[in-house]
Specification:
Layout (H helix, E strand, L loop, with lengths): L2 H22 L8 E7 L6 H20 L8 E7 L4 H12 L4 E6 L3 H14 L3 E3 L14 E3 L8 H11 L6 E7 L2 H17 L2 E8 L7 H10 L3 E5 L2 H13 L6 E3 L5 H8 L4 E5 L10 H12 L9 H18 L5 H8 L3 E2 L9 E2 L10 E8 L4 E10 L7
Parallel strand pairs: 1-2, 1-3, 3-4, 4-5, 6-7, 6-8, 8-9, 9-10
Antiparallel strand pairs: 10-13, 11-12, 13-14
Helix pairs in contact: 2-10, 2-11, 3-4, 5-6, 8-9, 11-12
Length: about 400
Amino acid sequence: MSRRNRRLAAAVLAAVSLTATACAGASGSPNSYKVGFVSDLSGKFALNGVGQRNGFKAYFEQLNAEGGINGHPVHVTYLDDGGEASRGSANVTRLGTDPGISAVGGFLLSNSCGAAAPRAESLELPLVCSAVAPDLLHPVHPYIFGARTSQSNQAAPMLEFAGTIVKTERPKVAVIVFGSAASIGLGAAVRKAAAARGWDVVANETVALSATDVSPQTARIIAAKPDVVVGALYDPLAILFMRSLAARGVDTPFVNYEGATAAGGMIPLKDPNFYVLSNVSASGAGDEPGVVRYRQAMQRAELPPTQPYANTGYLQAMEIAEGLRSCGFPCSGADMRKALERLNHDSQGFASGPISFSPQNHEALDTVSFYVWDDRTQTVVEAASGVRAGSQARS
């Protein structure tokens, strides 16, 4: 090999080594708390996964700039699952080899959280997941925590809100969800709650996780002539759905789950018939101290507060940080679980209500808000707040 080629090979090897180190993250100082983050940073749902990571990162960067938690910085290792449940589980195994790690956040998809649950339990490592299937919350799985209101418990407030925007006492409801475990659970809960109200479910559609088109489901929903559509479509599919309705002259309102976002869905659509449930500030606007702090953290990171799922990542980071604060230093995974189970935190207006867990409840929030595009102000505004979620008893 020539000298030039040897130098080139050495440079390539160094670049590969640097990239691997950057992906894996440094180990952190002996004085640091250690936290992991696993989400889709490169696959189909990377738009939301990257936003989720950025919100998580913005929270901890601001916290560390202010001195950390009682003088201890928080070191985070970020790993990509590519939207694949098996990679998410493998990443938890990888993170669990570090005995100093206290918790892992992320898990955009409930399927990834569910696949990692057995490893989390064997490693005694709490996972604070963005989306969780109902069977991991009822009964409580010891090491799985839902960062938000579970999708199945979003059904009741979605129908309660839907009842305020339709003009008939017994609305005809269409249900449309995409095929994650949590969203399928939401669809079942919506149908059950609608039946309890005496409402007719005139269409029930599921869209595959791999789908890039919702035309068949849209056509069947239009044919059913519902008064309102309730369901779970993440931003790209929600945009397709709403634009398909508009193209056919249909102005039926759609009440969507928290997987839709302001920047990813509401702002591009600018459609006052599109409503989105949220546990946290969807617009990043307002003068509540918690919302102001969120804006400051995102501005520090040179990111817009409306970046899709950044608010969710920020919420997860807040929950983990408050758990660490209660846990003390050092904090094992088993101790962190106990600390999370006594969490009761006031986000000062950032979240829709108090953030709390208990040994009997691993679902962080039991109130939701709804947001919509306002043509008059040309902004996303809050349409309703403080709506109680689900039938779950809090303790």
